[in-house]
């Protein structure tokens, strides 16, 4: 077929308009579902409008800034946010939304999600009464000093000490070795005035393990470090990620603090130096679990941004084959593109909803902890550990898949996804390295299995949501046999049960072979267990759609997204399902082909709604900050305009010409025996 001659830039706008006209869903209805209500969406939208119209929050020069400039800008953004809070009478929730909307890794984030919650949860009532209001109003800035140069995830081997001095009723904080230096601490390098320090409690020469202490780091008069404390920034991070955050180091040289600055809501030290144990060994985990719970929601919204940018670009980018309209085909129409991008869309929808549920569960647990009730702590720890691994690993992979789907232009900083990737990449390490957390998930699973079968009559009602899949192992066990058609795969009951069987069988197999586990078993089991839990939650999301989402078309579109999540999750778990003979052919041939056909058909059904489903996230161009994800679709125009702002383009001839380029040219011409004699052209 002969291709038409057309204006490629103008066509991008037409293609985007056509994609929006094609979608059958009411975008506003789905958007309200994602934001939990129309009221929450309107509140957020009004905040975004304030920010994007304020010149302080201009992003046009961000990609050209040095590390120091990005830190300085980050602090200016933070200061302006709190000015606006006061001017507009924003609530604490409104302000949190504003900070999250900035898509910057700011030092204040560590104050809000690590320092303040830990202080409030674990500080004694008298200490919270003394400093709580000051912390809440940011009269002091805080950070959380746990990781050291020599140890990170292995908290039990931290070297910083806090020795109690009964004579003066003080603790002495000390860094005895270079490897005991606190390291990677966000907001410590240049910002924080105070910190919660994780240190080994030493009583009468006995090491009682890590505890938390409230320590002033800098003068409130001139911001200089206090005597005995050496503080600085650890330097640039990989790929220029976390540019505005001053990840720092600190060393303490026998720094004394008052006894009441130990966070002693649970564990306590008497005035004469006797130790009073907490009622539960892991009560101090509350702050860490809070951060992990919030990582699920944050990861979901980040994947939503990646999906929005890449799907919009894929919709307007034409390349390759000539379609029936005489134009090159839109790359989103190629299976190799939509097969990569639509699962990312499904991940974002699932994790946004899951994060909301998890945050509610955490609030319930925190209320129980405040009363000394630890009954929900173990389940929350197991759940958040698994989901932290699953969401962060998925998010890192999805952002890069989305970037690569956009070809060469995806590598431009102006695409926005490279910056997003570099900022999100460390999420697989902070708040618990994923490979270490995998082991904790597996330990919890094996403990649940042992507990279930420790009784002569295993009772499935004793299982928690994170271990509910183990009910399948209670005798009489019905040997599973799945050989579904393409149509049967789209029944969520089938896929959820498959994922639960996978989890049950890999956990059972590990228990049988625990004395000689294979090399990757902890990662496989952890993933299977977490995905079984999420699958059941997705089933509940599907069941609740009619009650929570008005409109049959809207329900069907979101239902398809949830089912795509289940299908692609099963696809990634096929090795386990085939290994245990759960999925097998009854007539020969590739039994997995029907699954992949079902995925293709479902993707083709979702495709016309893809722009509507991404528009439902409600992101403005200012929020996305991506030339390739602009709402009007005119990506080439946006990319051209961005390039004109490059500082190198301020001069026609670069400074390097006289210093380096011209000498090289003259040397080369001389060596070649060519004399230009002032000519501009050969």
In short:
51% of the residues lie in helices and 10% in strands.
Please specify the SSE layout and strand pairing.
Layout lengths: L7 H15 L4 H8 L3 H15 L14 H22 L3 H10 L5 H16 L2 H12 L5 E4 L15 E5 L4 E5 L7 E4 L8 E10 L2 E11 L12 E5 L14 E5 L2 E4 L9 E2 L5 E2 L9 H31 L1 E5 L5 E3 L4 H36 L6 H29 L11 H8 L9 H19 L33 H4 L2 H21 L8 H23 L1 H4 L3 H21 L1 H6 L13 H14 L3 H6 L5 H4 L10 H9 L12 H17 L10
Parallel strand pairs: 1-5, 2-5
Antiparallel strand pairs: 2-3, 3-9, 4-8, 5-6, 7-8, 10-11, 12-13
Given as residue ranges, the uncertain stretches (5+ residues, pLDDT < 50) are none
Which secondary-structure class do the elements indicate? alpha+beta
**Radius of gyration over all CA atoms, rounded:** 28 Å
Global geometry: globular
Strand content: 5-15%
Mean residue pLDDT: 93
Major sheet description? 6 strands, mixed
Total of helices: 23
What is the percent of helical residues? 40-55%
Number of strands: 13
Alpha-carbon distance between the two ends: 43 Å
Active site: 431
Family: Belongs to the acyl-CoA oxidase family.
Domain Acyl-CoA oxidase C-alpha1: 285-445
Pathway: Lipid metabolism; peroxisomal fatty acid beta-oxidation
